[in-house]
Structure formats: structure tokens, C-alpha cells
Amino acid sequence: MSTNSLLFSQPMSRVLLFTIKNVKKTFKPKKFYSFASPNLKPFMDTRERIIENALTLFLSMGIRNVTMDFIAGELGISKRTIYELFKDKDDLVIQVLREMIVRNNEEMIGIISKTEHVIEAIFLILKMETERRKNFARVFTEDVKKYFPLINATMYADKKNLKEFSASYTLLEKGIRENIFRKDIRIDLVDTFLHELIGLMHSSERLKALEPTEPDALNCIFLPYFRGICTRKGVDLMDKYFSTNETT
């Protein structure tokens, strides 16, 4: 699964793992245009170029398989230049994941703002994430688990950042306005719980031993939870929408 802000993510695809020794000779990383910022300048500064290149490499090859030397070589710069901008690899990874989360949130918030109601938004976001994850290397979804605590510490510890880095916060706000989610829920608490639940799906050995599929997680955990915070109007919409549409 991806980072916490990718609310509906579950690992799906399997890809061949490449070693650094063989990658440079035979492998050209895929371009992940779904994460490309629509407002990127033709000539990005060095820091932006490093983040863009690292993001593509991490998604294609995993985080562990990509060294600072490899990134420098791909960009035609010295490793020293990278270390002048990022104190270590963990710092670079956090900044890359932060950028990924921000872009993904912007895309999801765009969906939320344009849909007729939040139930439709949930469906479309689930569909978008399912398609996007087909391009993720499985090793990336495994490697990123290590960074959940760091992401939480740097991006979600401050209550002021909850809304900025969480599309689900906006989803909950809109759902309450539409009388689809109950007005008595605490948005910050529900939103935080949803992100923690995603982390638990990645880290719990008991859950991993059960080998849940994506439909299992969706139909047995996430959708029932959303039903639980719905009004009668929301429950009726969920019954109607998810009984006639498939997201996976």
C-alpha cells in the first residue's frame, strides 16, 4: 500500500525486481505521468529535478534498490550535490513522498469538488487508485512501510497539517454538508483513524497472515466503516451506488 494520504490504497501488482547492477544496463524507468505536476516549469531547479527523478525511480524499482549514486548518475550530477540539498537518503525519501502525497491529494480533492456527492467521489477515487497502483512496483509498496512513522511525525503531528495532507478530511467535510455523513462526528478524529487504519493494514502481522485481498479490505473494513458514519441518506446512496458499480 502507498503512503497514509493515499487513502484507498492497497498493493495489487507484482513486478520483477531489478538489481542496481543490471538496471542501469537494461532498464529504463517508466514515466508516471499521473503524479506529474501540471504546473512544472520547463526548466526545474536542481532540487525539483532530484525529487522528480527519485519519484520515478522509487515507483519503478523500489526505495531500497535506488542508491544516491544511481540517482546522481541518472541526472548527470554529483552525489555531493544531492547531499547539499538533502541531509541523507531518508530525508530525500520523505521529501519525495511528501510531494507524492500533495499531488495525489490535489487530484483527489479535484474529484471531490466536481462530483455530485461524496459517495460518487469515493467510487471514483477508488477506481483511480486501482488503476494507478498497476504501475507501482510491489517492492515500492513494501519499502514505503518503513517510512510510515516518519511521515506521521513530519506531516501529521501538527493538527494544522491534517487538512493540507489529507483529501479524506475534505471528503468528510463535504459529506457532512451534504447530509451524507453524520453531523456529530469529529472530522479530525475520524480522518486520523482512517489513516492509522491504513497503516495497520500494512504493519499488522495478524492481518498479513490472513492474506486479505483488496476487495476483502474494501468490503469488510473500509466500506462498512463509511456506512457507520453515514446518515440514512448516505446509507441509501452507498447501497445503491456500490451494488451497481465495481471499483476493482
Count of alpha and pi helical runs: 14
Determine the fraction of residues in helical runs and give it as a percent range: 55-70%
What is the correct CATH architecture? Orthogonal Bundle
The CATH superfamily label reads Tetracycline Repressor, domain 2
Descriptors for this entry?
single chain, 248 residues, mainly alpha, Tetracycline Repressor, domain 2, 14 helices, 65% helix, disordered N terminus
Map the helices and strands.
Blueprint: H1 20-26, H2 46-61, H3 68-75, H4 79-85, H5 89-114, H6 118-133, H7 138-143, H8 148-156, H9 161-164, H10 167-177, H11 187-203, H12 205-210, H13 214-228, H14 232-244
How would you explain this protein's 3D organization?
This protein has 248 residues and is mainly alpha-helical. The protein has one domain: Tetracycline Repressor, domain 2, CATH 1.10.357.10. Helices cover 65% and strands 0% of the residues. Helix 6 (118-133) runs antiparallel to helix 10 (167-177). It starts with 19 loop residues before the first helix and ends with a helix. Residues 1-43 have low confidence and may be disordered.
